[in-house]
Amino acid sequence: MSTATANNSSGPVLDWAAGHGPVTGALSATTGAFAIATTGAATSMPPGWVLAVGAAGAVGHTVVGLRVRNAGRTLATRAASWLIGAGWTTWAMTTGPLTWAALGSLATIGVGIGAAARSAALYEEAREDEAIAAEQRQIAAELSAERRAIAAEWVDRIQRICHITVRVLGVEKWETGAGYSLDLEPQGGITYDRIAQHSVQLSADARLPHGCTATASPGIHQGRTILDVTTVNVLQADCPYPDDYGPLSVLTGLPWGVRTNADIVRAYLREQCALVVGPTGSGKTNMVHTILAGFARAEDVLTWVIDLNAGSAGLPWVLPALNGDIEHKDDKPVRPGIDWLAASYEEAMLMLDAALAVGLHRKKAYQDLLAKANTDLLPISARIPQIILVIDEGAEILVSTDRQMKELAKKILEVIRMLRAMGIRTVLTALGATGSVLGNLMIRREGKVRVALTGGETEGMDLGKMFPGRRGLRVEQAPYKGAGFMGTPESPAGLFKAWRILPNQIREITAATSDRHPRLDDVSAKAAGPAYARRWDAERTAWMRDHTPSNDHPDSGTPGLRLSALNAPENGQVSPEDEMLRRFRAEIDAQFGTAPEPRTPTTDAPPASGGLNLSALRGQPEQDSPAQQAALAALLAAGRDGTGASAIARALADQYGTTRQTVVGWLKTWVQDGTAVRVGEGTKARYVHRSHASGD
Ligand SMILES: Nc1ncnc2c1ncn2[C@@H]1O[C@H](COP(=O)(O)OP(=O)(O)OP(=O)(O)O)[C@@H](O)[C@H]1O
């Protein structure tokens, strides 16, 4: 009978699928074990048999559990129950099952198995609940048939290509009709990048048209992924710059273009610098204008542009104001869309020195303000504007081996490294995303707003270096002008199209924003000094006139620019820079007693007695500016040894901000009209005033 029970204890033992609760399961396991032990001991069954039965039980239950898809935890509990039970039985049979120790330990095992089974059952229940809830959620989401089809298609595709199981929590079709986004939950703790790295294969498998991609990016938390799938190539078409020229702020982001789903991409440059890479013909110049448009529209940004390629990046923002092409509604002069434009090495040096001086002075002068605002980031506003230096082909300057370029590079890097907190940032452009540009630690660290305009150019376009960690970006995806990739700390790198901005829009924006540009705060203007205050002076902007289409403008007969009108007080208010300029001019007049500038007809004060007597230089029509007269004085003072353009420019730079380029122009004229003589060749070339040259 008992043997039969033992053999038939296969009831509970062999009925692997029999349902047991935590109590009956434990009871069955322990009573079964007890029965086998007592019978086994009585009939001298070899204890090894019991172990074999236990192992078979464990395996049998596991197989059945797997078949009915029990959780791993439940399987483990059942298998463990079998093995523990078998272990006890083996021991009890050899030591005698009817001892207190054997009975006590059997009871303990029973309780243990019961508890384990209970927790496994609870877990199983929770799992079932979760599955039902998920199913209900899925149903509740009421995905349309089309969405469901999309979801199913991508679940299958991701499974095949990435070998990842994903749950689709949502499918959103873009309003533009250019694609859709999937909200995914990869199973097994897998993050978005595992899908992102298969972007190319996924796009191909989905038979997406050229220029369309499936791009994975992080979702709402680390366990979720957003997969953006473009189905229509919007990069191909032009996206005109929106004709809303309303105010912007550097703090709330400046729009630079659109994503393939028509979302606007913004650059947040309060703390970041930017790098815009675009080979010739990719639409880089257009992009620079779009960027300048954003800065012009901002109420808290002053834009300083360096373009050593004849200033062409900044000229469209200056010339219409310079030539008086645009009328202000109140007949007031129109301010240029940018605040300073440097096209030469000398002017760029002045600008960078001014930027550094402003930054360093702000650090000291605004200590109180920073303490009050409890921040180490200068609070930028229309009253204390951010200065953004846009340096066209600045990345090339950084890697140049030319001596002058190296000097510029040093200062650019200083600005990038030191002036973030004080509200001075840079936007550098580059012709290529080469290792030498991106190898620069300062660019990598501080310039995380990045754009790569490809225009189909693959040469020197290392997207992996431009957007580290972003997989699946390929130049071939954006073979159109103005199209490329943009990534910021806020918006992961992805396809993007720069707005197309036309010259008439640049003029319109210049006019619309003329009253909106901030003025450099007093503290900063003081630090920037005359180099800044006199940035629009005739001799410093003479080169711009070469770009003026016609010289028959009523004002163009005088060397002064119409921009000088900008120095006139507006609404009776004198800006700090205007005031400084006035004082500065008064100082020059007092010191040098020079002739008045042609465009300041009222300053005909007599020469101060203590000043240099430059009256001998008067009467020569071309020496009509104090700076030019000072240059001639320097030439005279250099005696028979003579001097050079750089030395003269250096001597004048502090007071007049005169550039070497300007001095070169004067020297050339003086050589032509016999005022000066050029001696020596090449780097040894010197200029000697004719009074010394003709003497002994
Ligand atoms: N965002 C854009 N959308 C549409 N077309 C564009 C865009 N940007 C540029 N283009 C087109 O490409 C042409 C060249 O653009 P752009 O002058 O900006 O290029 P670039 O890269 O600066 O070239 P280069 O260095 O030769 O001046 C433009 O005349 C225009 O037709």
UniProtKB/TrEMBL annotation:
The keyword Nucleotide-binding applies. Keywords: ATP-binding, Nucleotide-binding. Residues 262-462 form the FtsK domain. This is FtsK domain-containing protein. Residues 545-555 have a biased composition (Basic and acidic residues). InterPro entries: FtsK_dom (IPR002543), P-loop_NTPase (IPR027417). Residues 545-576, 591-625 are annotated as: Disordered. ATP binds at G278, P279, T280, G281, S282, G283, K284, T285. It comes from the Bacteria.
